[in-house]
């Protein structure tokens, strides 16, 4: 476990150093917060699994957005390989078809928002936003 932590620690610090050197931006606090949030989301997933608990649909989506890294959540849901459909079915009593249609509508809305906000509307570095868009498109194509 110590080795994994040190590898992550060194990678994050190296990335922050490269950005500072090349762009003059201090991003270490943001990277640290992102990894802390991701770790908390993984822990929540593990707790649900260990306790054999199916969370509420909104609770699942909120956590999955972080633990599945956003665009991959869209692709996983689109493909149907996620418990999001199951969460929606159990919470609302809707059929699998209705749950999938509801999730499909959420995906469409998320894509509309991503396309509306676009690269220009983001406070993040343009290259990072382009990478996120490319990953989202790649994941979506991969699972169609």
Distance between the termini: 37 Å
Largest sheet, described in full? none
Shape: flat
- SSE pattern, N- to C-terminal: HHHHHHH
The percent range for strand residues is under 5%
Helical residue percent band? over 70%
Structural class: mainly alpha
Mean pLDDT: 75
Q: What would you report as the Rg, rounded to the nearest angstrom? A: 17 Å
Number of helices: 7
Low-confidence stretches: none
Number of strands: 0
Task: Explain this structure.
By secondary structure, the chain is mainly α. Helices cover 80% and strands 0% of the residues. The protein is built from 7 helices and no strands. The chain has helices at 2-23, 28-50, 57-67, 71-79, 83-92, 96-117, 126-143. α2 crosses α3, α4 packs parallel to α7 (126-143) and α5 packs across α6 (96-117). The termini are far apart. The model has no long low-confidence stretch (mean pLDDT 75).
Please give a handful of descriptors for the protein shown.
single chain, mainly alpha, 144 residues
Strand and helix map with partners:
Layout: H1 2-23, H2 28-50, H3 57-67, H4 71-79, H5 83-92, H6 96-117, H7 126-143
Helix pairs in contact: 2-3, 3-5, 4-7, 5-6
